[in-house]
Amino acid sequence: MQKITVDEIQQNSLKYLNQVETGESFIIIQAGKEIAELKPIQNTNKQRRPFDLCTGEFTVPDDFDAPLPEDILNAFEGGQHPI
Asked: How far, in whole angstroms, is CA 5 from its chain's centroid?
């Protein structure tokens, strides 16, 4: 990663922005100290999954929210293990 000063950016900002556009990154120096990083934005335009991608592959049972059997509840709550 190339290091450039604030003065260099001020003198030729378009040059550095064009380089960033092509994928380069820079560390910006002011008074001998690294103060910032200039880099391309990561592409966040990921292709979204289509809605209803798995339609019909799984059916939620009618009793999905029914209470768990007592032995399984005890296992979660620190009681006797069912096995």
From this structure: 30
Ordered domains of the chain (ranges, CATH): 2-38 (3.40.1620)
CB distance 25 to 1 below 8 Å: yes
pTM of the model: 0.51
Question: Can you give the C-alpha Rg of the chain in angstroms?
Answer: 29
Q: What is the DSSP string of 2-22?
A: EEEEHHHHHHSHHHHHHHHHT
pLDDT in tens, the chain (83 residues): 899 999 999 999 999 999 999 999 999 999 999 999 999 998 777 778 788 888 888 888 899 899 888 888 888 887 655 55
Q: Please state, in angstroms and rounded to a whole number, the distance separating the CA atoms of residues 24 and 40.
A: 7
Residue whose C-alpha is closest to residue 2's, from 46, 37, 45, 52: 37
DSSP class of residue 57? S
